[in-house]
Amino acid sequence: MKALQFDVTIPKYLFTKAIGTMNRSLYYSSPFSCLQLKEVEKPALPNEEWVEVQVKYGGICGSDLNLIYLKDSPSTSPFVSFPFTVGHELVGMISKVGKKVDDLKIGQRVIIDPLLACEARGITPKCNECQAGRYNLCQHMNNGILSPGLLTGTCTDTGGSWSRYVVAHKSQIISLPDCIDDQNGVLIEPFSCALHAVLQNKPTQNDTVLVIGAGVIGLCVVAAIRALNIDCKIITLVKHSFQGDLATYFGSNEVIFLSRQNGYIHEAAKLFNGEVLHPIIGQPIVSGGADIIFECVGNKRSLYDSLRFARKGGKVVLIGLASFVDKLDMTMIWLNELEIKGSFAYGTNYFESHMQKTLQIAVELLKQSKIDLSPLITHQFSLDEYREALSTAGNKTKQQALKVVFEP
């Protein structure tokens, strides 16, 4: 089968890093690129507790683009195994079932929870984090019966959704009811990232919430807040007009457009009933701000905005994939006693009186017609068109792209 695989060596990394700075498409279109379209064997079931899933749609995530553009921190490298087939967002159909799988059947429409924690790795007893339901923080993502990998799409043994077939442990499988179409199904994983962040840092009805960034995750944060029937004030900081339209569609009360000048700072301060203050040198700051900020971009500017737009004693939730940030002014953290929270993927969250997997909560919200995520899908491509797909996903302004998916 065809698969988009990522493999890296130090010489290949250095060469690709050098030519990629001249033309970004060379990160994935050069014969020396770390990403290559290959003919590979289907991944084998690691044991009889696993199933094979035939992929219908596989999404392109911002983290996948970070990987391809070689922006990831080396800190994550112990938790991957090369070569691996990329892709952790998917909807598909079970095509093979291990002998120790009783409650799943061939032909069943499913999504997968891609995190490769203790249960999938056959580790007993489970680590303390997995026992507490925080399996996104599993202590053994480089141990057990599998090669290292935080999640499907970073592990050489499991395959990934940028191919026709992937394998998953029975504990990772989440059945998809007929009332949820494939377009919504492939978006459950990214939506769950936002949903987990919101449920872990739930706004109150009287809060003012600022969402920085209106890519898929930022828009899903807005959608998650409204799907949970939280009637707080939401302000969304966006870059493009089509993003602003969708932020409003999903329930944002106000939209602020990012500008190269500092006009957006004054607009934000006005909406916060705050005041813009000007240091003797450097960027303006804001006195008064949002109660909770969901930072969904992960670059220097967005991180600085998240710190200066938070009220005294406010909370900043970091969802964007920040790694190295040079010369970030952190004064506002201690000056305003800000609470900084990271949010990685999903796990279990409290919903409707008990703890549930975040992805299962997302399925329930879709079943209840609380949300329709399908407008987020803007482009579809075959695997053979991967260069065009990645160019589209990486050029949002020109292509007006949000979620780009492969149909293997």
Summarize the structure in words.
The chain has helices at residues 10-20, 26-29, 62-68, 118-121, 128-131, 182-185, 188-200, 216-227, 241-250, 263-271, 300-308, 331-335, 358-367, 386-393, 396-399, and strands at residues 2-6, 35-39, 50-59, 84-85, 89-97, 109-112, 165-169, 173-175, 208-212, 233-238, 254-257, 275-277, 285-287, 290-295, 310-318, 339-342, 348-351, 354-357, 377-381, 403-406. The protein is an alpha/beta fold. It has 2 domains: 2-187 and 373-406, Medium-chain alcohol dehydrogenases, catalytic domain (Quinone Oxidoreductase, Chain A, domain 1, Alpha-Beta Complex); 193-342, Rossmann fold (3-Layer(aba) Sandwich), CATH 3.40.50. β9, α8 and β10 (233-238) form a beta-alpha-beta unit. α7 (188-200) packs across α8, α7 crosses α13 (358-367) and α8 packs parallel to α9. The longest helix is centred in the middle third of the chain and has 13 residues, at 188-200. The N and C termini lie close together (10 Å).
Write a concise keyword list for the protein shown above.
7-stranded mixed beta sheet, 25% strand, 20 strands, 6-stranded parallel beta sheet, globular, 408 residues
Largest sheet: 7 strands, mixed
CATH superfamily of the largest domain: Medium-chain alcohol dehydrogenases, catalytic domain
Q: What is the domain tally? A: 2
CATH class of the largest domain: Alpha Beta
Count of individual beta strands: 20
> What would you report as the Rg, rounded to the nearest angstrom?
21 Å
Which CATH architecture of the largest domain would you pick? Alpha-Beta Complex
